[in-house]
Design brief:
The chain has 16 helices and 13 strands. It has 460 residues and is of the alpha/beta class. The chain binds nicotinamide-adenine-dinucleotide (NAD).
Length: 460
């Protein structure tokens, strides 16, 4: 499926019609291509008085080849690929005025598909109620900028734990923070995060390993992708292989031909297995142990819908959806972890859905399973952190695949437009986001649920 309206709007005739009728105007999004610079223009970097993050952020951006500017050296004609602001120094609501002072003069100076990133401290870690209040206020600013700036600009809030900085490198912070924050900043600034906006991302204390080459951030990693024969799973296999991973692509036997084509295309291997089969976890563990001796990254992507309103839903529809989307993930995690096949530095990434956050009519089974995936991340993250393994979820919004092609036309069209970017996402957008969470460099990102939804209004 393609978003024909979004393509039409890019044409000369489309532009005229959209302007005349005041119709939604989805911008063309900047997506990642090998060799692209991180940003289409310089980054303006600012900080509230007393901030602890501007220095490591400056180091990360400079190392990434980004031209840095500060507010004192800009002219009225200057345009920026990103506005980046360290708000960690804000400890009282009266100091929030510094945000206005930084963003107001530059609000109309952001290039198309630009980026706004605000960095702060998780409110629950703040030592005083006033600081926690002021830090919580940052969310409102970021989410509004995501809705206001337009032209494909995205906005995110990155919470950097204080405990993490101190544990990593002592009171001076910067070396440990520079390592733990680099992957997240690079992802958010790049075209990889095209369809991610309005998110709060927490960067904590886990071990992060900086890659030798940021164009191959998964070099040599053994990655399992379930549901890899088509849709988001096929895009995942392609993106993760491009980033250097050795991909094990899994799908049901009935999808064997499509699965083989995906695996051949990327030089990966194919495993035909129904995840709900009673012996699936042991067969999968045996396969990974004998072929690779381990699995560094497990991506639980396979999922199904069997929609009906609850009163009309037979028990089979309920059982199948819960089993594929949630229980099979738990069983596979248990066996792989018990057998020690996911080493320290390993990653588990599960695919949830905004239906699991907002709920959806006709999808009680699906939303239950996808909310359960969020519960799985919340409950596993603290214990797995002790083993050096991160666990996160992505929650896609409206992504163009066969799953969404089944939605009735009017609902489908509404689903495509009801977000800040006025368009649907592509499978590659979910794949790039999962890729970032899977990188060895992202060890400090755990327990997060990142929406890939263009800042959808659902569940916002
Ligand atoms: N497309 C969207 O807009 C969207 C939105 C939110 C979440 N998601 C989630 O993203 C994931 C991928 O969705 P998609 O749109 O690519 O769907 P899709 O239907 O195109 O692909 C799903 C794949 O999973 C495989 N699969 C299903 N049951 C399996 C089983 N028992 N064992 C092994 N493989 C099995 C299928 O054969 C298929 O290849 C799903 O978890 C879905 O719930 C999708």
């Amino acid at each position: 499926m393609t978003d024909r309206y979004a393509s039409f709007v890019q044409s000369a005739a489309g532009r005229t019609v959209v302007k005349r009728l005041g119709l939604p105007d989805p911008p063309r999004l900047r997506r990642h291509h090998l060799g692209d610079p991180l940003l289409p223009g310089p980054a303006l970097l600012g900080a509230a008085t007393g901030g602890r993050l501007a220095e490591p952020v400056g180091t990360i951006l400079t190392a990434a080849g980004v031209e840095l500017r500060d507010a004192g050296s800009t002219g009225p004609q200057d345009r920026f690929g990103a506005l980046v602001y360290d708000a960690s120094g804000i400890t009282d609501s009266t100091q929030l005025r510094q945000l206005y002072d930084f963003f107001h003069p530059h609000a109309r100076a952001v290039l198309p598909s630009g980026r706004v990133i605000v960095l702060g401290t998780p409110p629950q870690e703040c030592p005083t109620p006033r600081e926690a209040t002021a830090q919580r206020a940052l969310e409102g600013l970021v989410r509004s900028i995501g809705k206001e700036f337009g032209r494909g600009t995205t906005a995110q809030l990155v919470h950097v734990t204080r405990a993490g900085s101190i544990a990593a490198d002592g009171p001076a912070h910067s070396a440990g923070t520079t390592t733990s924050l680099a992957s997240t900043l690079r992802f958010l600034l790049s075209g990889r995060s095209a369809y991610v906006s309005g998110q709060v991302i927490r960067v904590g204390a886990g071990e992060a390993t900086v890659p030798a080459d940021w164009e191959r951030p998964l070099d040599g990693q053994v990655v399992l992708v379930t549901g890899a024969a088509r849709g988001i799973g096929a895009a995942l296999a392609t993106v993760l292989a491009r980033d250097g991973a050795r991909v094990v692509a899994l799908d049901i036997p009935a999808a064997g031909d499509a699965l083989a084509a995906v695996a051949n295309d990327i030089g990966g291997t194919a495993v035909q297995l129904d995840l709900t089969a009673p012996d699936a976890p042991t067969r999968l563990a045996d396969h990974l142990a004998s072929r690779h001796g381990r699995v560094d990254v497990v991506v639980h992507n396979a999922g199904i819908t069997r929609d009906k309103t609850l009163g009309r839903m037979d028990a089979d529809r309920w059982d199948q959806v819960l089993d594929v989307n949630l229980s099979s993930q738990e069983r596979i995690n248990d066996v792989l972890l018990e057998r020690g096949l996911i080493p320290s530095g390993g990653r588990i990434v599960s695919v949830s859905s905004i239906a699991g956050i907002a709920g959806n009519r006709g999808q009680t089974n699906y939303a239950t399973s996808k909310a359960g995936v969020i519960g799985l991340v919340d409950s596993l993250a603290p214990t797995l952190r002790e083993r050096g393994i991160s666990v996160n979820a992505v929650a896609p919004g409206f992504i163009e695949t066969r799953l969404t092609a089944r939605i009735p036309l009017v609902v489908r069209e509404a689903g495509r437009r009801m977000n800040s970017l006025a368009q649907s996402g592509l499978p590659v957008d979910v794949a790039e986001t999962i890729g970032w969470l899977a990188w060895p460099a992202s060890g400090a990102v755990s327990g997060n649920v990142v929406r890939v939804c263009g800042q959808s209004l659902l569940g916002a």
